[in-house]
Amino acid sequence: MTYTVPPSRREAIVRQLRDEIVTGLLAPGTVLKDAELARRLGVSITPVREAVAQLTTEGLVDLAPNRIRRVSVVTRKNALDLMDVMGVLACTGVAWGVPHLTDADLARMRTRLDDATSALERGDTTTAGAAGADVSTIMITAAGNEELQAHVDLTVTRTLRLLALTADDDLWRIWNDGYRDIIELLGMGRPDDAVERYRRIFVEARAYVARMPFDS
Question: Per-residue pLDDT for 5 more than 70?
Fold first, then answer.
Protein backbone atom coordinates (compact mmCIF):
# COMPACT_ATOMS: atom_id res chain seq x y z
CA MET A 1 0.00 0.00 0.00
CA THR A 2 1.30 3.46 -0.91
CA TYR A 3 1.30 5.97 1.92
CA THR A 4 0.68 9.58 0.93
CA VAL A 5 1.81 12.27 3.34
CA PRO A 6 -1.15 14.63 3.92
CA PRO A 7 -0.58 18.26 2.93
CA SER A 8 0.04 20.91 5.56
CA ARG A 9 -2.92 23.08 6.50
CA ARG A 10 -1.46 25.91 4.43
CA GLU A 11 -1.01 23.67 1.38
CA ALA A 12 -4.51 22.24 1.78
CA ILE A 13 -5.93 25.78 1.76
CA VAL A 14 -3.80 26.72 -1.25
CA ARG A 15 -5.18 23.71 -3.15
CA GLN A 16 -8.76 24.48 -2.15
CA LEU A 17 -8.64 28.16 -3.10
CA ARG A 18 -6.65 27.46 -6.26
CA ASP A 19 -9.29 24.96 -7.39
CA GLU A 20 -12.08 27.45 -6.63
CA ILE A 21 -10.33 30.14 -8.67
CA VAL A 22 -9.43 27.89 -11.60
CA THR A 23 -12.98 26.52 -11.86
CA GLY A 24 -14.56 29.96 -11.52
CA LEU A 25 -16.26 29.21 -8.20
CA LEU A 26 -14.38 32.25 -6.93
CA ALA A 27 -15.18 34.61 -9.79
CA PRO A 28 -12.69 37.10 -11.24
CA GLY A 29 -12.70 40.29 -9.18
CA THR A 30 -13.90 38.61 -5.98
CA VAL A 31 -12.44 40.32 -2.90
CA LEU A 32 -10.65 37.85 -0.63
CA LYS A 33 -11.01 38.59 3.08
CA ASP A 34 -8.91 36.52 5.44
CA ALA A 35 -11.49 36.35 8.23
CA GLU A 36 -14.31 35.30 5.91
CA LEU A 37 -12.19 32.62 4.25
CA ALA A 38 -10.99 31.35 7.63
CA ARG A 39 -14.56 31.00 8.90
CA ARG A 40 -15.73 29.25 5.75
CA LEU A 41 -12.82 26.82 5.72
CA GLY A 42 -12.82 26.29 9.48
CA VAL A 43 -9.20 27.33 10.01
CA SER A 44 -7.26 30.16 11.61
CA ILE A 45 -6.35 33.33 9.75
CA THR A 46 -2.59 32.69 9.57
CA PRO A 47 -2.62 29.76 7.08
CA VAL A 48 -5.23 31.62 5.02
CA ARG A 49 -2.94 34.64 4.75
CA GLU A 50 -0.05 32.38 3.76
CA ALA A 51 -2.20 30.61 1.17
CA VAL A 52 -3.43 33.85 -0.40
CA ALA A 53 0.16 35.12 -0.52
CA GLN A 54 1.12 31.98 -2.42
CA LEU A 55 -1.74 32.44 -4.89
CA THR A 56 -0.62 36.03 -5.39
CA THR A 57 2.82 34.84 -6.48
CA GLU A 58 1.09 32.43 -8.88
CA GLY A 59 -0.78 35.31 -10.50
CA LEU A 60 -4.23 34.08 -9.48
CA VAL A 61 -4.74 36.88 -6.94
CA ASP A 62 -4.02 40.58 -7.44
CA LEU A 63 -2.85 42.85 -4.63
CA ALA A 64 -4.19 46.39 -5.07
CA PRO A 65 -2.28 49.45 -3.78
CA ASN A 66 -4.80 49.66 -0.93
CA ARG A 67 -3.83 46.09 0.09
CA ILE A 68 -7.17 44.64 -1.03
CA ARG A 69 -6.71 41.19 -2.56
CA ARG A 70 -8.96 40.19 -5.44
CA VAL A 71 -9.16 37.16 -7.69
CA SER A 72 -7.31 38.33 -10.78
CA VAL A 73 -9.43 39.37 -13.73
CA VAL A 74 -8.81 37.72 -17.08
CA THR A 75 -8.42 40.38 -19.76
CA ARG A 76 -7.53 39.95 -23.41
CA LYS A 77 -4.06 41.39 -22.84
CA ASN A 78 -3.11 39.18 -19.91
CA ALA A 79 -4.63 36.14 -21.64
CA LEU A 80 -2.49 36.77 -24.72
CA ASP A 81 0.57 37.50 -22.58
CA LEU A 82 -0.03 34.22 -20.79
CA MET A 83 -0.32 32.31 -24.07
CA ASP A 84 2.97 33.81 -25.26
CA VAL A 85 4.87 32.90 -22.09
CA MET A 86 3.29 29.46 -21.87
CA GLY A 87 4.15 28.84 -25.50
CA VAL A 88 7.82 29.68 -25.04
CA LEU A 89 8.21 27.57 -21.89
CA ALA A 90 6.11 24.58 -22.93
CA CYS A 91 7.43 24.38 -26.49
CA THR A 92 11.00 24.47 -25.16
CA GLY A 93 10.20 21.71 -22.67
CA VAL A 94 8.52 19.54 -25.31
CA ALA A 95 11.43 19.99 -27.73
CA TRP A 96 13.81 18.89 -25.00
CA GLY A 97 11.65 16.07 -23.73
CA VAL A 98 10.36 14.37 -26.89
CA PRO A 99 13.70 12.62 -27.69
CA HIS A 100 13.55 10.92 -24.28
CA LEU A 101 9.96 9.64 -24.39
CA THR A 102 9.43 5.93 -23.86
CA ASP A 103 6.68 3.64 -25.10
CA ALA A 104 5.21 3.78 -21.60
CA ASP A 105 5.14 7.60 -21.79
CA LEU A 106 3.31 7.45 -25.11
CA ALA A 107 0.76 5.03 -23.66
CA ARG A 108 0.15 7.38 -20.73
CA MET A 109 -0.34 10.28 -23.13
CA ARG A 110 -3.00 8.30 -25.01
CA THR A 111 -4.75 7.43 -21.76
CA ARG A 112 -4.80 11.02 -20.51
CA LEU A 113 -6.08 12.31 -23.84
CA ASP A 114 -8.90 9.76 -23.68
CA ASP A 115 -9.63 10.96 -20.15
CA ALA A 116 -9.77 14.57 -21.35
CA THR A 117 -12.10 13.70 -24.20
CA SER A 118 -14.45 11.75 -21.91
CA ALA A 119 -14.50 14.58 -19.37
CA LEU A 120 -15.41 17.13 -22.04
CA GLU A 121 -18.27 14.93 -23.21
CA ARG A 122 -19.57 15.06 -19.61
CA GLY A 123 -19.11 18.83 -19.50
CA ASP A 124 -16.43 18.49 -16.80
CA THR A 125 -13.97 21.13 -17.96
CA THR A 126 -11.91 20.97 -14.76
CA THR A 127 -11.06 17.28 -15.20
CA ALA A 128 -10.63 17.76 -18.94
CA GLY A 129 -8.14 20.55 -18.43
CA ALA A 130 -6.10 18.60 -15.90
CA ALA A 131 -6.01 15.50 -18.10
CA GLY A 132 -5.06 17.50 -21.18
CA ALA A 133 -2.33 19.33 -19.28
CA ASP A 134 -0.89 15.94 -18.30
CA VAL A 135 -0.29 15.16 -21.98
CA SER A 136 2.07 18.15 -22.17
CA THR A 137 3.53 17.46 -18.73
CA ILE A 138 4.54 13.93 -19.70
CA MET A 139 6.54 15.27 -22.63
CA ILE A 140 8.10 18.13 -20.67
CA THR A 141 8.96 15.95 -17.68
CA ALA A 142 10.88 13.63 -19.98
CA ALA A 143 13.40 16.47 -20.44
CA GLY A 144 14.43 16.04 -16.80
CA ASN A 145 14.77 19.81 -16.21
CA GLU A 146 13.07 20.47 -12.88
CA GLU A 147 13.56 24.24 -13.04
CA LEU A 148 11.77 24.46 -16.36
CA GLN A 149 9.00 22.19 -15.11
CA ALA A 150 8.47 24.41 -12.06
CA HIS A 151 7.96 27.48 -14.25
CA VAL A 152 5.68 25.59 -16.63
CA ASP A 153 3.54 24.41 -13.71
CA LEU A 154 2.84 28.01 -12.67
CA THR A 155 1.65 29.00 -16.14
CA VAL A 156 -0.32 25.77 -16.60
CA THR A 157 -2.54 26.63 -13.63
CA ARG A 158 -3.41 30.01 -15.13
CA THR A 159 -3.94 28.50 -18.58
CA LEU A 160 -6.33 25.92 -17.13
CA ARG A 161 -8.25 28.77 -15.53
CA LEU A 162 -8.60 30.46 -18.91
CA LEU A 163 -9.91 27.24 -20.43
CA ALA A 164 -12.27 26.53 -17.53
CA LEU A 165 -13.77 30.01 -17.76
CA THR A 166 -14.85 29.42 -21.35
CA ALA A 167 -17.36 26.85 -22.52
CA ASP A 168 -16.31 27.35 -26.13
CA ASP A 169 -15.80 23.92 -27.69
CA ASP A 170 -13.63 25.31 -30.48
CA LEU A 171 -10.85 26.37 -28.10
CA TRP A 172 -10.84 22.96 -26.46
CA ARG A 173 -10.81 21.32 -29.90
CA ILE A 174 -7.59 23.14 -30.82
CA TRP A 175 -5.81 21.48 -27.91
CA ASN A 176 -7.32 18.01 -28.23
CA ASP A 177 -6.87 17.81 -32.00
CA GLY A 178 -3.29 18.93 -31.58
CA TYR A 179 -2.58 16.36 -28.89
CA ARG A 180 -4.12 13.62 -31.03
CA ASP A 181 -1.92 14.56 -34.00
CA ILE A 182 1.18 14.72 -31.80
CA ILE A 183 0.59 11.25 -30.38
CA GLU A 184 0.08 9.88 -33.87
CA LEU A 185 3.28 11.52 -35.14
CA LEU A 186 5.27 10.19 -32.18
CA GLY A 187 3.88 6.72 -32.81
CA MET A 188 5.10 7.00 -36.41
CA GLY A 189 8.61 7.89 -35.25
CA ARG A 190 8.41 11.55 -36.35
CA PRO A 191 9.48 13.51 -33.26
CA ASP A 192 10.46 16.71 -35.11
CA ASP A 193 7.04 16.90 -36.76
CA ALA A 194 5.41 16.26 -33.37
CA VAL A 195 7.29 19.21 -31.83
CA GLU A 196 6.28 21.44 -34.73
CA ARG A 197 2.66 20.35 -34.34
CA TYR A 198 2.86 21.25 -30.65
CA ARG A 199 4.08 24.73 -31.52
CA ARG A 200 1.16 25.13 -33.90
CA ILE A 201 -1.29 24.51 -31.04
CA PHE A 202 -0.13 27.73 -29.41
CA VAL A 203 -0.28 29.68 -32.65
CA GLU A 204 -3.86 28.56 -33.24
CA ALA A 205 -4.91 28.96 -29.60
CA ARG A 206 -3.44 32.45 -29.38
CA ALA A 207 -5.25 33.53 -32.53
CA TYR A 208 -8.49 32.16 -31.11
CA VAL A 209 -8.04 33.86 -27.72
CA ALA A 210 -7.41 37.13 -29.55
CA ARG A 211 -10.94 36.88 -30.99
CA MET A 212 -12.65 35.91 -27.73
CA PRO A 213 -14.94 38.45 -26.03
CA PHE A 214 -13.60 39.76 -22.74
CA ASP A 215 -15.16 42.05 -20.16
CA SER A 216 -13.51 45.45 -20.00
Answer: no
